[in-house]
Design a protein that fits this description.
By secondary structure, the chain is α/β, with parallel strands linked by helices. 41% of the residues lie in helices and 19% in strands. The strands form 4 sheets. A 6-stranded mixed sheet has the order 5-1-6-11-7-8, sandwiched between helices. Strands 2-3 form a two-stranded antiparallel sheet. Strands 4-12 form a two-stranded antiparallel sheet. Bound molecules: zinc ion.
Length: 265
Amino acid sequence: MKPIFKRGMSLLLGLTMAVSLFTATSFTSEAKSKKSAKKNIVVVLDAGHDTTHMGCHYENFEEGLANLYIAYYCKQELEKYSGVTVYMTRNTLECPYGADPASATKCLASRVNFAKNAKATVLVSLHNDYDPDLDKSQNGSKVIIPNPNYKPQLCVQGTQLGQSILTQLVGTGLAVNNWKLCPNGTGLVTRDSASGKYPDGSAKDYYALINQSKSVGIPCIIVEHAFCTNDSDRVNHLSTPEQYQQLGVADATGIANYYGLKLKQ
Ligand SMILES: [Zn+2]
């Protein structure tokens, strides 16, 4: 635990300085530029987990911190394009939604609510994976997309956006993950709830972030960049700020390509 914490703290110092430069944007200041709202898209980036709702950790890797780095670098890169406003559901390691350890559900609902209030075009949740059996053969990237039920157009958008991001992630040297829970070989996966239903009686998406976003009409995808339990993924993609930057830039490029964004002049 100790080395993880020490490393986390030193990474955090750099990140705190960097993030403070990028948190000035607010809903109100953005409202002034409503004139160009017609073509403007709003991307809400969700750095998965926080210090209350912990993600995976293995060796020197801590998911909540890694996801925050990736989100920050993704935002920084996306803001090089015109016609896009970018928000993050959290800007620090702490949970901004009450930090109730007993209610991860409430935290996830608050993240979706944040996206709704921001009038999000899309909610992109950034994560990394861990194989619970420590199966080191599980590696690479996958994107969890909305299933085709209830609002099928969100599945279509998720498929195209997911593919665009996956193409960029593979460009960084990551493999396409064939997730053993939902294997289909494409790196684009849907996962249904075993019992939850949408109002039309069809199976809900398994992940709360995706099914709650679907309920309010926002396409939501979960990008699982790499496996911390795979040595090559962890050493070559999940160990340094530069590597997190490479992943964030890949996500941003995939998003920009899908929405046809142009770099600012
Ligand atoms: Zn996660």
